[in-house]
Specification:
Blueprint lengths: L1 H19 L2 E6 L2 E6 L4 E5 L6 H28 L7
Antiparallel strand pairs: 1-2, 2-3
Helix pairs in contact: 1-2
């Protein structure tokens, strides 16, 4: 039982390391967010031709979509490990 827990912990660490290597980009109307696998924003690109309120809304939308993509990647990685299948 203890060995199973240690094995699961090692699998979780491996998933974390794999996820940290991921980069997710989402672009909408010239606004682009680049997020890493730790769900941290790496870069934000703006479209100066859009009004400020439109840019703000698109930044939020891009960020939310990028987070969902990270979550999907994480779920897929977890499915590949025994004991974590969903």
């Amino acid at each position: 039982m203890v060995f199973d827990k240690i094995k699961q912990l090692n699998q979780i660490r491996e998933i974390q390391k794999d996820l940290e290597k991921e980069t997710i980009e989402v672009e909408k109307e010239g606004i682009k967010i680049i997020l890493n696998g730790k769900m941290e924003i790496e870069e934000v690109f703006l479209n100066q031709e859009l009004p400020k309120d439109k840019q703000e809304a698109l930044i939020k939308d891009c960020h939310n979509e990028a987070i969902k993509k990270v979550q999907i990647i994480l779920a897929k990685k977890m499915q590949s490990f025994p004991g974590f299948g969903m």
